[in-house]
Amino acid sequence: MFGFLNKEDPADNDNVTLDPQRIPAHVAIIMDGNGRWAKARHLPRVAGHKEGMNTVKKIAIAASDLGVKVLTLYAFSTENWKRPNDEVNYLMQLPVSFFDTFVPDLVKNNVRVAVMGYVDKLPAATQKAVRDAIEDTKDCDGMVLNFALNYGSRAEIVSGVQAIAEKVATGELAPQAITSATLDQALMTAPLAPYNDPDVLIRTSGEERISNFLLWQIAYSELVFTDVKWPDFTAATLKACLADYQSRDRRFGGLTDKK
Ligand code: IPE
Ligand code: IPE
Ligand code: MG
What are the catalytic residues (predicted)? Predict the structure, then answer.
């Protein structure tokens, strides 16, 4: 890969310039590496999650400033319940402190909060924090800050298919009438239309896998992997990742439109 993105050292990326005409509309991030960040500092894993929350605040504003329309952040997966109770409890309380301290800044930056995932399975206090943040930012018409909370793409697809099958069973929908758009509308990204699909998916921490995130929606997303652990991710790292995205030639199966 050509070297806009220094995978190991984001500090080298400070001088990156982006083409303002080609800022990706929908940026999705798998925020990974909080635990390893903490471990490297001989801190408990939750210290990494706390620092990761501060990174979310910085990156939300940075993305909004760059003109991103939708920033989707993978905060808790349907598989993360497998973790020790103490860690799960900490992660469930994080949205409460996040929104408690950050909603005024979001409003100031005209950022609207959205959430996708099985929110009804979250603890009551987490659900309330999420509901309040959505309500408090509902009039903002700038960037959408979309949290994937208790989200898993296979579960999402299963739920979507069940909803479609229900319509077929009642005769409301003919099987032959099912199109790719029917699926788009049945998935949890439907409210983000016309930006359902991420233009770029970034994963931090050096892991190069998808971990059940947006499987349908990333069909033609550009994938950017950085070794930087999420608590160390900065606005400069984001810009480097977007510069890497801008260096790609998106063909969607066709031929290049680069002269
Ligand atoms: C990402 O960091 C945050 C969540 C998955 C909630 P991790 O907690 O997965 O950190 P690592 O991968 O163990 O370092
Ligand atoms: C993916 O990270 C989920 C989130 C970032 C919320 P994980 O740390 O859970 O993924 P795996 O277990 O390494 O695949
Ligand atoms: Mg991880």
Answer: 32, 80
